[in-house]
Design brief:
Elements lengths: L5 H12 L3 E6 L8 E7 L4 E3 L5 E8 L2 E2 L6 E4 L4 E4 L10 E8 L14 E6 L2 E7 L5 E3 L2 E5 L7 E4 L14 E6 L2 E2 L9 E2 L4 E3 L2 E7 L5
Antiparallel strand pairs: 1-9, 1-14, 2-8, 3-7, 4-5, 4-8, 6-7, 9-16, 10-12, 10-13, 11-12, 14-18, 15-17
Length: about 210
Amino acid sequence: MSILTQSGRAAIAASIKEQSLHLAWGSGDANWESSHQVEKVFVEDEIALDHHTIKDVRVFTGQTTYQPSIDYIVDSSSGVIKRTENSSITANSAVTIEYTESTPPELITSEKLLNELGRRTADEVLFCTGDENGELITPSGRFKPSNVPTNNLYLKFTFDFTNAANQVIRELGVMVGTKVKEKLPPGQRYFEPQDIEDPGHFISFRAYSTAH
């Protein structure tokens, strides 16, 4: 089995570094992290909810709250609730269900944001290496700049307060190779969807469970 070596990864990073890099942000889906309460009837010991993925499920009838794993099992990815064999929930009965619609997991097959609002040109693109005392601080650790190609790139983007003002940001993505339309103002660094000729390639995706 062949592997991609460190020098090979550095070569890929070097190729990406030479292209246009943008950070796109979007509003995602307003239903992400929304709360729901429904009344449903178990049919053949199952209830299929209208949403998936789900979390923070509570099943109850009146003042009686049923116990997960003991009275019912939740398949979060499909949004299906199954009544257990020895459940205290009466067969074919109606129950009330409270749950939260989860932010979906990022998919490796994703090609774009769900609802892009705009994208910003990178202010700084650096090769870097891991260093516990490094001055480049990221959510995944600290790094220091490198003068030679490495398999890590540090990207810095600075958005203005006027960019997507009053919008809720729920998703971010790094784009490489974006081509903007001609005749845009010189020096423009923030681009809305109508400014884009070719969106380029989607190389990194992050969906947020807490809106920003």
